Amino acid sequence: MRSVIQRVSEARVTVDDQVVGQVGAGLLVLLGVGPDDGESQVEWMAEKLVGLRVFEDEHGKMNRSLLDVRGAMLIVSQFTLLGDCRKGRRPSFVNAAPPELAERLYDSFVRAVGRRGVETAAGKFRRQMQVALVNDGPVTLIVDSPEPGGAGDD
Q1: What's the confidence (pLDDT) of residue 147?
Q2: Does the active-site annotation cover 14?
Q3: Side-chain half-sphere CA neighbours of 36 within 13 A
Q4: Is 140 labeled as catalytic in the residue annotation?
Q5: Which of 6, 41, 55, 78 is catalytic?
Q6: Cβ neighbours of residue 83 under 8 Å, at least 6 residues apart?
C-alpha cells in the first residue's frame, strides 16, 4: 500500500461538478492499493498516518500529529501511485490491485482512520475526480506500508 500525503490548510474533491469530500486543516491522502495488500496494511497505514508528526509545535518543529491538532483527512483512491514508468513511455499498472480488492481496502482504510478519532472525507472510487488543495508548508511525503509478511507486518 502506498500513500502520498500532503499537509493542507484545505482540500476538496469534486465529481461531476459536485463537491463529494472536503476538509479544512489536515491531510490529503492519495491512496494506492497493491494486489498483495490486506487488512494488516490498512491498519498499519491508518495508524502511521494518524500518528505521523508533520504539524508544527510552538517551536516550529514538526512534532504534532493529526490527532494532536484535531485535523481532518481527505482520502482519495489513486491506483496510478503504483504505476511503473521504468520501461517504455506508458506506465504499467500490474502492481495495482484489481478494482474489487482495491475498493474494499480503500473503504476499510477510510473506516480505520475514522475509528482512530479523525474526521474523514473521501472521494468516489473508480470515478473521474478533480482534487483541489492548498498545500501547507509545502509538506508532501510518500509512505509505503511494509510488504505482506515482511518486517513490521503485524
Answers
A1: 78
A2: no
A3: 9
A4: no
A5: 78
A6: 91, 92, 93, 95, 96
Q: Which cell numbers hold the place of 28?
A: 490529503
Q: What is the pLDDT of residues 91-148, one digit of tens each?
A: 999 999 999 999 999 999 999 999 999 999 999 999 999 999 999 999 999 999 997 7
Please tell me which residue in 55, 79, 109, 120 is annotated as part of the active site.
79
Give how far the C-alpha of residue 19 lies from the chain's centroid of Cα atoms, to the nearest Å: 18
* 48: three-class secondary structure by DSSP: helix
User: What is the reported pTM?
Assistant: 0.93
Report d(CA 64, CA 70) in Å as an integer: 10
* Range 57-81 average pLDDT: 97
Burial class (CB in 10 A: 0-12, 13-18, 19+), 56: middle
Quick one: which of 5, 3, 23 has its CA closest to 13?
Answer: 23
Give yes or no: 80 in active site: yes
* Domains of the chain with bracketed CATH: 2-144 (3.50.80.10)
Per-residue confidence (pLDDT) for residue 154, from 0 to 100: 40
Strands of the chain, DSSP E: 2-15, 18-23, 26-32, 55-56, 62-64, 72-77, 119-122, 130-144
Record the cell numbers describing residue 103, joined without a space. Answer: 475498493
